[in-house]
Here is the input.
Amino acid sequence: MSKNFVSLACAIACSFIWGTAFIAQDMGMDFIGPYTFSAVRLALGFLALLPFFFIFEYQKVKNTRLELKFIIGYLFLLGFFLAGGNIFQQISLLYTDVANSAVFTVLYVVIVPVIAYFLFSKKIHNSVWPSVLMCLIGGLLLSELDNIRVRFGDSLVIVGAFFWAFHIVFISKFLKVFNYPISIATFQCLTASIISFVPAFSFEFISLKVISMEMTELLYAGVLSSGIAFMLQIFAQQNLSPAPVAIIFSLEGVFGSMAAWFLLDQFLNEFKIFGIIIILSAVIFSQLAPIYGKKIYGRN
Here is the structure.
């Protein structure tokens, strides 16, 4: 089994967990605020991954030659982007529905290749650009063409998309020098949780009793989405470069919309279904085109 296939499977599984986690995020704010939800889910993600860190990577990281300041600096940067993406996405669900939040989140697909190419001179295969365009068209169809009014919540999701894009790009850069995916996933959750607790303690009431009332949603969004899924993300990015992997991660918009349809009765009309088909086609095209091309760009 090739490394690329394993990474591809990890990316798809990650997208599914992220997409279905929108349901838990939407239902998990009856008693707690968005900052608290984000902070606690990230803390749970850290606790879920910590045993894996000690079992599989602790000794290897202990013997690494990289300076501790460098590692901490990068983890803080990843935690900052992770916290920003989570917070803006979570707040948006107070103002918009799950389908819109899931769909507008995938705009990071457009942002990632721009960052990788123009800021870091990262060569990418020509198939990425039409795939990005297809994802954008699919996202517009999913968001209903007869109601294109960017609400406040949608604007927050778009801001969060920039955080997700930078998060994807800098994970790829960090993996080049610090190839310990479990360690990165574990401690980026810790730093992101600490950052998220700052506004949570400042603007919201926090108590264990209130948090326990949302524990089911927090466990799904925390252990699976913030913990396991982010570890799958990093495993995926070990062998897939930022632009193509971002297109695969855009499937979270598809999974989120479908989950909202089945679980929250948010109906998907023919335009939305067509948008899902377009995004799926873009994902397949972005992965198959480089294989058959004479030159492969954007691959490790």
